[in-house]
Design brief:
Strand order of the largest sheet of chain A: 1-8-3-6
Radius of gyration of chain A: 19 Å
Mean pLDDT of chain A: 96
Largest interface: A-B, 50 and 50 residues
Number of domains of chain A: 2
Distance between the termini of chain A: 34 Å
Strand content of chain A: 15-25%
Oligomer: homodimer
CATH superfamily of the largest domain in chain A: Jelly Rolls
Shape of chain A: elongated
Number of strands of chain A: 11
DNA sequence: CGTCCTTTTGAACATTGTCAAACACTGTGG
DNA sequence: CCACAGTGTTTGACAATGTTCAAAAGGACG
């Protein structure tokens, strides 16, 4: 790995508070690598040898069963993946692939477990991160089980809008067919759901989203911090 | 709390390895309480003051949104709940109620965070437990998104059978309408799904399940350790 | 310019949910 | 012990939601 990567890594929440010595130990065995788009990184069921962290780019976590596939989540800079598997030394429950050209850190899972034992600050950061991920998945399940697909889409749009600073026009950060899978529907169904949001001031042309009646959309979406707030 | 509770608590995985001193500190502020059935324990959105652990009985975690409700999971002896919220000092994402008369430990969340800082063995146990819960939820999402309701039911039955030592006849440990909610369907739909499993050797009368053609059922259910194995 | 992939559209179909009513089970109080 | 209320379960008819398949339209890229 390059020397120049180190400051960026160190400034990630997971590593920010830990002792220099422990950080050095972690970094010693680490790889940093660039991957092209659409590259498989890990395979569901494989043993988990490395904790992965996205520095730059986009990674999709997905899962398969019986010839079906579903997108579980999409990760961008700063996100960790397969932390739980690395900690428990258990097989991965999800596969991962890059969607764009991506830069990724790989920390040997064994080093992670070792440093976890020694360094309190790191242990705390790991627990915080894991609890954060857990809560993220719980929110996802609540959305899936309590909302219709149109409601999920409406809330997704409002959340995206917030991420883009509340602008009334922004660009979808994901392909529609992946978005459909994330939201738990087929691409065809997403296409129709988008149309059915038109009376609520949603216009989507290509990747460009325009929300002209945010209050109407919110009335339909009924967002709540207990499902839709990524922090909290 | 009673002195007589202490050995049972100590033997839980979460506390087994920790120092006597730390354990004493945790137990000092703890409550142990019996609750009648159908008692609300915590409410979604509330601040999380106590880590809860089920000693005996049954607890349902559930969530609400917009006049709808869904069962998230059902917990029995030994299970912790709202660990993630306690660790992060964040609002609960789920509500909890007893289903049967239940005995429950409540540890002040602040004590948990304090002892986590001091005691390595406890910190490790917390991370392990959290990673375990995380993986459990991920498996749940995979089931929801990759399987039809009949497939979920089939796998649920096979899992239950395994829990009962593989007996061809056993008794449902949950009310059907709750099971329906756990599996992500309506009670009516569960009732019909049960019928549609009859050709696969499933007979359910009241709470009594009989599985006469396990191989046929498995062919339909296609269970996999990456979704259906509670450990791993 | 053509090829490949995504997106959209339409029509048929399958699955799941809703509503209303009947039925079964449980526990209570007469 | 029985009648009864209350709750959970099942059934039927129907509506809503979501999927599948096929085909056309639109974009990206060599």
């Amino acid at each position: 790995m390059r020397e120049s990567d180190i400051p960026a890594i160190r400034s990630l929440e997971l590593f920010r508070e830990m002792a220099d010595e422990s950080f050095a130990e972690l970094v010693r065995g680490a790889y940093v690598q660039n991957f092209p788009p659409n590259m498989d990184l890990i395979l569901e069921g494989d043993q988990c040898d490395f904790l992965h962290i996205v520095i730059d780019g986009t990674v999709e976590l997905f899962a398969n069963w019986s010839d079906r596939e579903t997108a579980m989540t999409i990760l961008r800079g700063g996100a960790t993946f397969i932390l739980a598997a690395a900690i428990r030394d258990a097989p991965n429950l999800m596969s991962a692939r890059t969607l764009e050209r991506s830069r990724i850190i790989m920390l040997p899972a064994e080093d992670v477990r070792l440093v976890f034992e020694k360094d309190h600050a790191f242990a705390r950061a790991v627990v915080m991160e894991l609890a954060y991920c857990y809560r993220g998945v719980i929110k996802g399940v609540k959305g899936l089980k309590l909302r219709t697909s149109i409601e999920r889409l409406a809330n997704y749009l409002l959340k995206s809008q917030k991420k883009f600073g509340g602008a009334s026009e922004f660009s979808l950060p994901v392909e529609k067919r992946r978005l459909a899978s994330i939201l738990g529907m087929t691409p065809e169904n997403l296409s129709r759901s988008i149309k059915s949001l038109r009376p609520y001031g949603v216009e989507i042309a290509g990747q460009v989203v325009k929300i002209t009646k945010p209050d109407d959309l919110k009335t339909l979406a009924k967002p709540t911090s207990l499902i839709d707030d990524p922090r909290s």
